[in-house]
Structures are given as C-alpha cells and as structure tokens.
TrEMBL record, chains A, B:
Cell compartment(s), UniProt: Cytoplasm
Organism: Liquorilactobacillus oeni DSM 19972
Top-level taxonomic group: Bacteria
Name of the protein: Phosphate-specific transport system accessory protein PhoU
Occurrences of domain PhoU (ranges): 20-106, 123-208
Biological function: Plays a role in the regulation of phosphate uptake.
C-alpha cells in the first residue's frame, strides 16, 4: 500500500510539473504577445502563434495522464480533487494561450494602419498587468496560496475598468478620425482579449479555493462577461 | 459486481441527463441572445444574463458528480473516459453560455445608437447558424454520431468567413459615417462572440471523437483563433 502511495505521489508530481510547464509556456506566450503588440513585431507575433501548438499538446497530455492515474491508482478525496483540478484548470490555462494567439493575429493584421500612440500605451499597461496576473496565479496555484487567490481575483476588476476606458477612447478617436477606424477596432478587440484572460485567471483562482477548501465558489462574478 | 455496474450506469445516466439539460439551457441562451440582438429587446437580453447562473451551477454540479462517481465506482477504460469527457465538455458548453451573455451585454449597451440594418441582417444570419451548430453538436454528442461531429467541425468555417466579412463591412461603414462607430464596434464584438462559440462547438466535436475512438484530435485547427 505504501509503495502504491509513493507511486501515486510520483505520478501526481509529474502532473504538477507538466501543469507548471504549461503555465510557464502560457505566461511566456502572453508576455511575448504584449511585446509583439507594443513593438509592432510581426515576427514575434508569428512565433507565439506557432508555439501555441505545444501548449495545446500539454493540455492533451495532462488529459491522458489524468485517465491513466485515475484508472491505475483510483484516488479518492483530496487526491482525486487534485487530479481533477489539474484537468479542469488546464482548460483555463490553455485558453489564456488562445487569447495570446488572438492578440498576435491582431498585431499581424494591423499592418501599417494608422496607429494611435496614446491608446497603445494604455493597452501596453493593461497587457503588463494581465501578464503579472497570469504569473501570480500560477505561483499561487503551485504554493496553494488561498489569500493570494482571493487577492488576484479582486485585481481582475482593474482589467474590467481598463477595457471600458479603452473602448470609450477608441470610439471617440474613431468618430473624430475615420483613418483610425481600422486600428481602433483592433485595439478594442485586443483589450477584450486581455480582459477575458483576466476571467480565466479568476477561474484558476476558484480552482485554488476548491483545492484548499473543497468548495466550488464564484469569485468576482459581477466582473465576468464585461464588454 | 452486477449490482455495482447497474448503480454506476444509473449514476452515469444522471450525469448524461444533467449534461443534456445544461446543453438545452445553453442552446436556449444563444437562441434568445440572437433574438434579443435582432429585436433590440433589452428585457430578453437581461433575462439571458440572469439565467446564466443556472448554467454555471450545472457545471459545478457535474463536477461534484464526477468526483463522487469516480470515488465510489472507480471506473476504468471507456467508463472513465465517459465521465471525464462530460467533465471537460461541460467547460466548453458553459463558455458558450458566457458568450451568449456577452452578446446580451452588447445588446443592452447599444441603446439607441445608430443601427446599420444590413449588418444586423448579416449578424442575425450568423447567429442562426451558430444556434443550429450548438443544437446539432448536442444531438451528435447524445447520439455519439462521429460523422456528424466531423461535419459540424467543418461547418465552423462558415462562421470564420462571416466574421471576416462582417468586420470588413463594419470598418467600411464606420470610416464613411462617424455616427456609426458606436454600433459598428459592437457589431464586430458580437460577430467575434459568435465565431468563438463556433470554436467551442468544435471542441465538443473533438470530445465526441475522443469518446468514440479514444483519440485526442484537433479538428479544424487553422480556423481557430481567427479574428
């Protein structure tokens, strides 16, 4: 029995390591997506898109590992919760990667269209903030830091406020200058992607609460589905 | 053993029923979200937003059921795959609901802004198509219809093409008429939500393949992360 326990713990550790690796890849993806947007760097944007495949494969691999671990070790209570949480949280992490890709697609398509420096500065700020949130939530997950999870979910409100502000400013600029419509509408999309990443981060915070307390909670529900 | 098998099958049936109910609620949500958008019906939009809570609760409930069923019956092979797939696919279904809510938020915020009838017609068409896709994929899931799943994933390309078209038309109109910027930028958002729902439908198609063949596949990868 002790041996089985040890082997299960080994397998679970492997899953945690894979999850952490996936998290680091996604953090890197969003970091680079923001950088590509700020620097108008299409090559970097393309690079993020190509690498997304590896993130998707991580999610698939975690799924296979989940099936194997459950079938072999038949975990219960906290162990089972641990395995299932990795499985579910990996969907949220993977979708953060998808949104980094969407940002990169926007960066590539904007081409030489008339840029609006002041709005790009705002988006860069929002991007840095989002990137930090992703980093912090991964750290909180690894360290099972409940208090930190609550705090990060609260931080998401900043992104909601930023999106509203950026949307408003884009509309004002687009109304005044037709030449800015192309870039302005992409700015709104990019800000929407960043705000949505905040929602996925909040989901991961909820998984941390679930792991620690065994309760399914909804953190920050009013901020979700913002525009 | 036979008795345990029977009880497991009962529990699994309950999960399938709950999943199907969740699917129906989400189908209704997207149907109503499209209708609210087309009819400029803010009360209906509000109603969809309020009801989303019940969809989220379904997902939480399925999660609890998964933990209980695995801990109690320790399923393996096809049974385990069945349980895990419900758990993962329910995330995709829940997110379709979130996007219906986002559409409704857009409908509410557009207020009396200058509408563009020809683009609204296009979005309505896209909305109807998306709604059908959701209905078809739920049906394919329940009936384990592999061929249908492949077909539905292919259908997603229509939404990608529609989004590109609508985005382009919105930009043209916004450039020509500053008064249309407000509604135009919301149209782009709404079309983006519909396109993203298509991606979630494709994910569910992938789960159907996984259930039937035990293989994790990526259907229609090039269409994902479109803008």
């Amino acid at each position: 029995m002790k041996k089985l326990r040890k082997t299960f713990n080994n397998e679970l550790s492997k899953m945690h390591v894979r999850f952490a690796e996936m998290g680091m890849m996604v953090h890197e993806a969003i970091f680079r997506a923001v950088k590509a947007f700020v620097d108008h760097d299409k090559a970097l944007a393309h690079n993020v898109i190509v690498r997304d495949q590896a993130i998707n494969e991580c999610e698939n691999e975690l799924e296979k590992m989940t099936l194997e671990v459950i079938a072999l070790y038949q975990p219960v209570t906290a162990d089972l919760r641990d395995v299932i949480t990795i499985l579910k949280a990996s969907s949220d992490i993977e979708r953060i990667g998808d949104h980094a890709v969407s940002m990169c697609n926007a960066t590539i398509r904007m081409k030489g269209s008339q840029r609006i420096a002041e709005i790009e500065v705002e988006i860069a700020k929002m991007g840095d903030y989002t990137c930090s949130m992703v980093e912090h939530v991964l750290d909180a997950y690894v360290n099972r830091n409940l208090e930190r999870a609550y705090q990060i979910a609260k931080d998401d409100r900043f992104l909601d406020a930023e999106l509203r502000k950026i949307r408003q400013r884009c509309m004002t600029v687009m109304q005044a200058a037709p030449a800015s419509v192309f870039s302005g509408s992409y700015y709104i999309s990019v800000a929407t992607y960043l705000e949505r990443i905040g929602d996925y981060v909040t989901n991961v915070c909820e998984w941390i609460v679930f792991l620690q307390l065994g309760e399914i909670v909804e953190l920050n529900p009013s901020s979700k589905n913002n525009l």
